[in-house]
Amino acid sequence: MALHLVVIDALNLIRRIHAVQKEEADIDQTIRVCSQAVTKIIKQSQPTHIIAVFDHHQQQRGWRAELLPNYKEGRKPMPEALAAGMGQIQDALWELGVDSLLSDGDEADDLIATIAMKVANRNEQVTIISTDKGYCQLLQPTLRIRDYFQQRWLDLDFVQQEFGLKPEQLADYWGLAGISSSKITGIPGVGPKAAKEILTEYGDIESAFKANSLVEKYRKKLDEHIETARISKQIAALKTDLPLGFNLQEIRYDIHE
Questions:
Q1: What's the angle, vertex CA 152, arms to CA 57 and CA 100, rounded to 5?
Q2: pLDDT for the residue numbered 59
Q3: Start-to-end C-alpha separation, the chain
Q4: Nearest one of 107, 115, 132, 111 to 57, comparing CA atoms
Q5: Which residues of 71-104 are buried (b: 16+ CB within 10 A; e: fewer)?
């Protein structure tokens, strides 16, 4: 049987499920709905290996905040009841045959990217379950992203329609245009349209910065804010080289009836 690794962006899934529960719903209801969702994911994807990756809910904002102090500043904290029930949710996933991995020092996004790319680069199939468009920078023939809630693939067609660029240009795109929800600055005055125009012409930030032909309205902005663009790109890019303390055999999925 061909290998198929499914990596669940756990808090992306759980917090969205919890958010649509009725206000008076207890943690048990959230656990039930999460279990139903993961059961459906397993049925649809038929994994040979599967893991749910969590951000530690008490974790600080990590290395990105050291580069950009405002990074993700002021985000709404996890509801106390949900934070208190996180262990129960992980136990419920374990009962379904899904092990949980908690990030420690790095964001779950980087851990997910590292796990996924290690397997995808071996020409084995990987599916990331998340609504986070940041993972689209990883897209390749052996790696795909599934939005569970809208039941759609965040694939090459999606990236082209959404950004008009290639997956490998997305970190540069966010380096220029920023990401307002994460308070990633980008270059002031360069929005999505301008970022797409620059990258369509020059491919990446550094090539545009070095180009003598860059039009004056962009030349001035890049000259003044190139370091901000570089930092924003670095923050938007996912790490894929974190050390992992486990092997694939440990997350093999045993079919649960």
A1: 30
A2: 55
A3: 19
A4: 107
A5: bbeeeeebeeebeebbeebbebbeebbbbbbbbe
pLDDT at 194 over 90: yes
Percent of the chain scoring above 90 in pLDDT: 77
SS3 content of the chain, % helix, strand, coil (to 5): 50, 10, 35
Tokens at 225, concatenated: 């804010």
CA nearest to 29, candidates 77, 73, 72, 92: 92
Strand order from edge to edge, sheet including 49-54: 99-102, 49-54, 4-9, 125-129, 143-147, 152-153
- Which is nearest to 117 in space by CA: 126, 108, 109? 126
A 10 A CB-CB count for 47 gives: 23
What's the pTM value of the predicted model, to 2 decimals?
Answer: 0.94
Q: Cα–Cα distance between 246 and 101 in angstroms, integer?
A: 10
- The Cα–Cα gap between 91 and 39 comes to 14
Query: What is the largest distance, in Å, between two alpha-carbon atoms of the chain?
Result: 64
Round to whole Å and give the CA distance between 196 and 203. Answer: 9
Counted residue by residue, the chain has a size of 257
Q: Cα(154)–Cα(171) distance, rounded to whole angstroms?
A: 16
Q: How confident is the model at residue 257 (pLDDT cuts 50, 70, 90)?
A: very low
